[in-house]
Every structure is written in structure tokens, then in C-alpha cells.
Amino acid sequence: MLTAREITVRYDGKPAVDAVSFELLAGQWLMLAGPNGAGKSTLIKAIAQTVPYEGTFLLNRHHLKKIKAAERARMIGVLSQHNSAEYAYTVEEIVRLGRYAYRRGFFSRQAEDDEREIASALALTGMAEYRRASVLSLSGGEVQRVFLAQVFAQNPQLLILDEPTNHLDLKYQQHTLDLVAEWLKQPGRAVVSVMHDVSLAKKYGTHALLLNRGKTVAYGTVDAVFSRENLEAVYEMDVYAWMRELLAQWQGKE
Amino acid sequence: MKHDRFTGREYLLCSLLLMGVLLLCVCVGSVNVPLGDTVRVIWNAVWGKPQDGGAYQSIILSVRLPRVLCVALSGASLSLCGAAMQGLLRNPLADGSTLGVSAGASLGAVIALAFGVALPGIPYGGTMVMAMLFAFGSLLLILTLAYALDRSLATHSIILIGVIFSMFASSLMSLVISFAGEKIKSITFWTMGSLSGSNYPYAAILSAALLLCGAVILRHREELNAFAVGEENARHVGVNVRRVKLTILITVSVLIGVCVSIGGTIAFVGLVTPHMARMLVGPNHRKLLPASLFSGAIFLLLADLIARTILRPIELSIGVVTSLVGAVAFVMIFYRSRKEGA
What we know:
The structure holds two protein chains of two kinds.
Chain A: E1 2-11, E2 14-24, E3 29-33, H1 40-47, E4 54-59, E5 62-63, H2 69-75, E6 76-79, H3 91-97, H4 108-124, H5 140-153, E7 158-162, H6 170-184, E8 190-194, H7 198-204, E9 207-212, E10 215-221, H8 222-225, H9 228-235, H10 239-248
Helix pairs in contact in A: 3-5, 4-5
Chain B: H1 8-27, H2 35-46, H3 57-88, H4 96-99, H5 101-114, H6 125-149, H7 155-178, H8 184-193, H9 200-219, H10 221-229, H11 231-236, H12 241-263, H13 269-281, H14 285-309, H15 318-341
Helix pairs in contact in B: 1-3, 1-14, 3-9, 3-10, 3-12, 3-13, 3-14, 5-6, 5-7, 5-8, 5-12, 6-7, 6-12, 9-12, 13-14, 13-15, 14-15
């Protein structure tokens, strides 16, 4: 579905992402992992075409750079890490923007599609009851869910998530990731996400790309990538021991 | 979705209100004209019927009516520009005067007057084109500087740069004026001119500019909604960010350029009325843009009325009234956005 070939992004001449390649197929959930400054978010921005890059992305064998903005938005949906609102838009108005790329003429069928997608996105994310509420009145986590609903309404094939669970409490972390996993079950869909939390990456991802200082350290299935050696090399600590120590906090003390 | 656009009834209501204020402004002034006479004179003029030569005829037709039309059109234009920029830049304090665009346009107009830049065949064409070019140039310069300072185009950095640019432009203006020699009279007349010297050709130019630029801005209401939510988000939902931004900025510059070259800088109109409109109808540009048009026209008409009548027979400059109201509103919005944003 998405092929990345030798992607390099430079900030002030220094490569933040250095010759990274991967091949994403339908049904896969690719986790971008690595320490701070590894280039995960930058790689996401390159896919979303918000930063200039060298190399090529092929989306269903088409050059991504050459695809027009609206057409790209019908295929790729992006949920960024920080979403906030300045004006008192309602939840529904924000979600409706997800249908922008589908605007075409004044056909009623189009409008029906829009209404259906919006309603189902609101229902999926649990925001239906806030439909008419102003986004300024919502908490950070709720705002994040509104933008998740927007990207669902956009109905893309490829979903790109930058730290989707960053501002969410535990309940909605699980809820959001389960939602995305459910969304992925439909044929012809794929997900790329930046995930700081290695445990979550391991649980939900099918594949992983481990980055350090812009370079690929390991790429493959989640289990192969998150080996003790790879993680230790990148995080400069015994991640396995640390994770088990954390787990031990929950054992036998209920 | 039922309430996301202006319904016919709302248009009718706003139009009636606007007509009422228009009539009021034609009637009231240094000499008050009875409403019946006003309506009769305008009615006869519109349908080309012979006038009965009443004493009020020339006051209404050659002084008040063109002025009131120009005021209403300028108010609507400036307000629309303010609403568009506030959406595009996601900044509730953006406006021609706070961003320094109006100052830039004035500088352009003064240079045109001083060095006699003229377009053959179009009266004041040179002034107008120079005002537009300078408006666009200033807008680009200010945004480039603001981007260099901070990529998120934060409210406060833009306003700061706008203020500095305004000062810079007005000192350049003084410089040009001091070199202007015998043209100094016409320049001074223009800078003080406000809308008291309005005539029908001006009203025609203003309405043409508003019709053209207004159509472009209204066509981009969805894109403005996306920008008002966030530029990055706009890109993600499929808005052609570069093209839309450039289109809106050029359109706004043209419209502000025309307004400034005809009426001088009238500060804060584009700041106050979109804000009031937003409080009434919400931030959705489907409603906000038409609401800003109407409220801008009505606000500037009332400001002009106050300027003409409050110290009768002395006439204040219209900018005095809008600045008094606008400065207070600016402070209020600024404090509120500081509290919410932080």
C-alpha cells in the first residue's frame, strides 16, 4: 500500500530522518518506535507531506508527491499529536471538516454519505452526545477524540497517528487503540503510528520500525524488532528487565 | 445539519435592519431631513421620476446618499477582510489595522500621490493600484517576519510585528510627505479625507471590489473553517493550503487597498465586527462571513453617524469613533484570549 524508499528529511542541513525505507501492506499496523529525537514524528510529517524530504513514497504505486491534496486526503488520514481549538466550533463542525475532500457539486447522495460517515464516526468515538458542544468546553482527551472522529469520517485507506494516546487517560488509551484495531479489520486498510510506549507498540502493532537518530536500527515484525538486543542498543538500558520490574508491581497484590 | 448557513429569513432580517440604518443615516445630520421626504427623494431618483425640487434634494442626493453608501460598503468590506484574516491566521486579533496592512496601503497611496503615479483613464487609479500592491507587500513582509520569529504564527508575535510595521510605514509616509513639495496639499487632503468627500463613482468602485473579492472570500468558507481549526489540520483534510492562503491574502489586500485609497485608514472595523458576529452566530464561516458583512456595514454607518452628529456642527473623523470602540474591544479580546490560551 505504502512504499517508502530512502526517505531523508533534513533540518538545517542535518538529517533528522536518514535514508529510511519500509513497505507497508494492507492489514498491517506499523509502529514507529525509538527514543526522543529518533525522527519518528518527522517521518510521519514526511508521509503527511508537511515537511520537504528526499526519496520517494509510493501510495498504491503512485508517487505521493504528485497526488493532489484532496485526493491524498481521501486515501491518507492523519491524526496529529497536538490538536487544540482557538474558536468555539462544535464537535460536529470539526468532524464535518473530515469530509472536505469529498466535496463535489451539490448531489444529494454525497450529502447522505457525509451524514452517515459523520454519524458513525461520532458514535464510534463516543462523541455523539457532545455533537453540539463547543470544542472549547472539552478536555484535552476529548478534543483528541473529536479529531479521531474527524479522521474516521475522512474514511481513508491509510491512517497515520502521531502519539495517538498521548493526552488520554488509561480508559481512552485502550478505547482508542481498540477502535483503531477494529478499524484496521476492514480489508484494504493500514495504519502507521508513532508509539512511545513500547508495551502498547508490542501489543497492537504487527510490524515495527525502530529508529535511532534518524537511522533504521531494525525493521520487521514486532517480535523480531523489539528484541532485547535491539532495545538495549537504542534505549541504552535493559528494557526487558525494566518492563518486568514494572509488571511485578501488579502481581500478587490485588 | 440545519443551522449551518444563513437562511433566507436571516438574510431578509439583516437586509431590513441595514436598510433601516441606512435611511436613519441619510435623514440625520447637520440638518435633519424628515423620513418621508428622504424616502420620496430617493424613490424618485431611483426610478428616474422628476423631483419636486425640495430643499432637501441636493443634501440627500449629492451629499448624504453617496457618503452613506460608501460608508456601508467600506464597513462591509473591512469587516469581511477582518473575518477572513482571523480565520486564515487562526488569530482573533487579526485585522487590516492591527496587522499593518492598512498602514502599508496608506504608504502606497501617499507615494502614488506624491510622485504622481497615475493610470490613464481611471481617476485615482494609480493611488488605488499602489495601495493594493503595498497592502499585499506589507502582508507578505509581516507574515514572513512572523514565520521567522515563530512558525506557529502565534497571536502575539503577529500583532507585535504589525504594530512595528505600522510605525515604520507611517514614518516613511511622513518622509515622503516632506519631500512632496507642492503636492503636499492634495496628500494632506487625502490623509484627512475619510469618507466625507464620497461620491457615486467611489461607491461604484467599492461595490465592484466588494462584489468581486467578497465572492472569492465567500467561496472559500469551508477552507477558512479548516484554517480556523488549524493550518496543519487543514492540510490533513485535503485543503490545498498554499493556494488557498495566497488567494485569500491577495483578495484581502485588494479589498483593503481599495477601501484605504478611498476612505483612508479606518482602524479596528475588521477587528470589532467579526468578533461581535462570532459571538452571535458562532465561528462557522458559512454564517460568520455574511454576518460580518452586515454587521460591518451597520457598525460603520452608526460610527459615521456619531462622528457627524455628536459635536454638531463640528464633524469628527470616523476613525476617531471606530478607534475608541475598537481599542476597548481589542483589549477585551486580548485579555480573553490570553486567559483561554496561555
